[in-house]
Amino acid sequence: MNLHYQDGSCGHSCCLRVEHLGVRIGTEQILTDVNLHVHCGQMVALIGPNGAGKSTLLKAILGQREYDGVIAFTEPGQRSKKPLIGYVPQSPAFDPSDPVSVSDLFACCMSKRPAFLGLGKAMRQTVLECLERVHGEALIDKRVGTLSGGELQRVLLALALEPIPNILILDEPLSGVDVEGMTMLMDMLDEIRHNYDLSILMTTHDFSLLPKYADLAVLIDRGIRIQGSPEMVLSSPEFNQVFHMKGGAL
User: Fold this and answer.
1) For residues 167 and 48, what is the distance between their CA atoms, to the nearest angstrom?
2) CA spacing 20 to 30 A to 62: which of 27, 30, 86, 172?
């Protein structure tokens, strides 16, 4: 069962705490007074218009952006520690003519052995085990540039899950994925967070799947406008004011 403490405490659950976070780039204040608690096993969706600060918040959590305030991760009975974070960026572009295969990509990321020498038997088995987590074993010898949007997300997700992180961060994982692929990807993320009891924090512009999968939706527009269940956020006046939509539909 996923727990969310309404008083903002973490109780006896492991927790990523973001408190009074602010980010300034040059003279521009990008984020102001962001407060967010993400518990183990939760799937949290960050939504908001372009330029609202969603990716900036992710970069602050990843340690790639300076900030004011507190970002801390705690586990029951332990003091705050640095969590292990898996990160899936927005889908990079690969040249379809590039000969780099999925196994080559894993070799570059996971092995000191030059990729052009190929995978040893033990490393190939490790790559297959990584791909098995995302039901992608059949992709191991495909060229990365020929993968569909959904297949590429599976490969990037498999890389982000080695080793298994405390927190999995995904920046627009549904971008470039067809409707059927979106459902398959969300089913997979739901399976992963339950199998490994990890937190998932993702940005998305697709709201239709949030009520089924997300525990918490967070509407960001230079700060948090509202957070709560997807149903509550998508039907809120704040959502309508930001997107001029009701319930995620025009």
Assistant:
1) 21
2) 27
Give the mean model confidence (pLDDT) for residues 94-104: 89
Q: What is the four-CA torsion angle of 101, 105, 108, 113, rounded to 10 degrees?
A: -40
Helix (H), strand (E) at residue 218: strand 216-220
- In this structure, the number of other CB atoms found within 10 A of the CB of residue 80 comes to 13
Is omega for the bond preceding 96 within 30 degrees of 0, making it cis?
Answer: no
Q: Are 123 and 173 in contact (CB under 8 A)?
A: no
Are the C-beta atoms of residues 216 and 44 closer than 8 Å to each other?
Answer: yes
Burial track 112-143 (b if 16+ CB lie within 10 A, e otherwise): eeebeeebeeebbebbeebbebbebeebbeeb
DSSP letter (8 states) at residue 249: B
pTM: 0.88
**Neighbouring C-beta atoms of residue 91, cutoff 10 Å:** 18
Closest CA to 154 of 124, 185, 187: 185
Q: Determine phi and psi for 2, rounding to 5 degrees.
A: -90, 130
**Which of these ranges, 75-79, 175-179, 225-229, has the smallest mean pLDDT?**
75-79
pLDDT digits (tens, 9 = 90+) for 154-166: 999 999 999 999 9
- Tens of pLDDT, residues 195-230: 999 999 999 999 999 999 999 999 999 999 999 999
